Amino acid sequence: MSTLFFQRVKHIIKRIPKGRVATYGQIAELAGNHRAARQVAWILHSSSEKERLPWHRVVNSQGEISLKPKQGYEVQKALLKKESIEFDQDGRLDLNQYLWKPSVAKWYTEL
DNA sequence: AACCTGACTTCGG
DNA sequence: TCCGAAGCCAGGT
What we know:
The chain has 111 residues and is mainly alpha-helical. It has 6 helices and 2 strands; from the N terminus they run H-E-H-H-E-H-H-H.
């Protein structure tokens, strides 16, 4: 599918800086639909490879990796560690430290 | 059309 | 802090 919402989501994800992360809900909100967190996940699942998206920089609202072990969890964690992001013993990262805080105004004007 | 299934989130207890 | 339930929305059957 290729709605404006989908385009915005991809556009936004591509802009997450190295060493920072964004949450599903945050991306949904930036794209104009605060209730579409699950759709953001769906977009990642379906087209992160095709669109060359930095999918590993997207985590859930608790600062955890949502992927299941052997389903990509280890890969994502490794990619984030490579960007100097650290995890605690429970596999969580500190959102206060790593959460991306973009200046919101521009997204609507760029697309 | 109905029903199920998610790489989700928020709220209450 | 840790579940469970409910809300959400698109795709697959």
